[in-house]
Design goal:
Blueprint (H helix, E strand, L loop, with lengths): L1 H11 L3 E10 L5 E12 L3 E3 L1 H11 L2 H22 L5 E6 L1 H5 L3 H12 L6 E6 H6 L1 H12 L4 E7 L6 H4 L6 E4 L1 H5 L6 H15 L3 E4 L5 H10 L3 E2 L10 H7 L5
Bound molecules: guanosine-5'-monophosphate (2 copies), manganese (II) ion and sodium ion.
């Protein structure tokens, strides 16, 4: 397939770049971390969204070398940012299903931490609900092993998978991320508001923190804060941007 050949080239030519989207604390109004989001800086097509190529990268196995590059580069970038600013940012990195099933994920993560010098407590791995639930027993073992590195784990796109709620407490995770589909149409009296409320209360009953993704309006922020959700991420605060723009934008220091 042509796309796979192109992606192999892109990897060699370093056409994959990372953008970082701020995550804000509702309590302080400050940026507490960023999520790394990959883009393909294509020589003719411009900036290509991961939606277009991550599924093919998954299928072809290219997600493994790409994912390793993402981990190392983002850990290095946040180490640099943390050295240049007063704040200590957390870095969230998406781990796909195939990466999570990879034999040496533990070694890949450990290596990224060592080569970058990022403090393990400042790294958070985002794994989707459907991936962790697919093979729950193995997932629990791998998560325990990863967490022995002193990093954190969040369950991404929460609410869209098929969590056995009775099972959730066995997962050694730190945070749930409310999927943006629930935030998008969250109005007073809506089903989405009730779903968000349920997720926050479930999370807190398990001593997990909650971040809402796709926050686009002040109204959404206020409802989420009212529910007790701790963190928000979305266009209302900032779009994903390059490391350079993140520093220049001033969003980290305000
Ligand atoms: O940034 P954007 O909204 O276009 O991202 C779309 C999807 O691509 C999201 O579901 C996100 O989780 C996924 N994605 C973005 N960056 C990465 C990455 O570095 N690795 C993996 N596995 N998925 C990513
Ligand atoms: O699946 P994951 O949560 O990793 O995906 C994050 C994706 O959501 C990124 O592609 C990012 O660009 C996108 N995104 C971030 N903030 C917003 C937002 O406020 N609204 C919408 N529609 N998309 C967002
Ligand atoms: Mn994510
Ligand atoms: Na998500």
């Amino acid at each position: 397939m042509q796309l796979v050949t192109d992606m192999r080239q892109a990897l060699k030519r370093s056409e994959f770049i990372l953008h970082y989207q701020p995550i804000i604390s509702f309590a302080s109004g400050r940026v507490i971390g960023v999520e790394a989001l990959i883009r393909w800086q294509h020589p003719t097509h411009g900036l290509v969204s991961p939606v277009e190529f991550i599924p093919v990268a998954e299928e072809s196995g290219l997600i493994l070398p790409i994912g390793q590059r993402v981990l190392e580069e983002s850990c290095r970038a946040i180490t640099r940012l943390n050295a240049q600013t007063d704040i200590e940012l957390m870095l969230s990195v998406n781990i796909s299903g195939k990466q999570f099933a990879q034999e040496d994920l533990f070694d890949v993560v450990k290596r990224a931490l060592i080569v970058s010098g990022l403090k393990p407590r400042n790294l958070k791995l985002e794994i989707t609900e459907s991936v962790v639930m697919e093979n729950a027993k193995q997932a629990i073992e791998l998560l325990k092993r990863l967490k022995s590195l002193d990093l954190q784990v969040s369950i991404d796109d929460f609410g869209t998978g098929y969590s056995s709620l009775s099972y959730l407490h066995r997962f050694p995770v730190d945070m749930l991320k409310i999927d943006r589909s629930f935030v998008s149409m969250m109005e007073a009296g809506s089903d989405n508001l009730e779903i968000a409320r349920t997720i926050v209360s479930l999370a807190h009953s398990l001593s997990l923190e909650v971040v809402a993704e796709g926050v686009e309006t002040v109204a959404q922020q206020d409802m989420l804060r009212e529910l007790g959700c701790e963190f928000g991420q979305g266009f209302y605060y900032a779009k994903p941007m390059s490391e350079e723009d993140l520093l220049a934008s001033g969003v980290l220091t305000t």
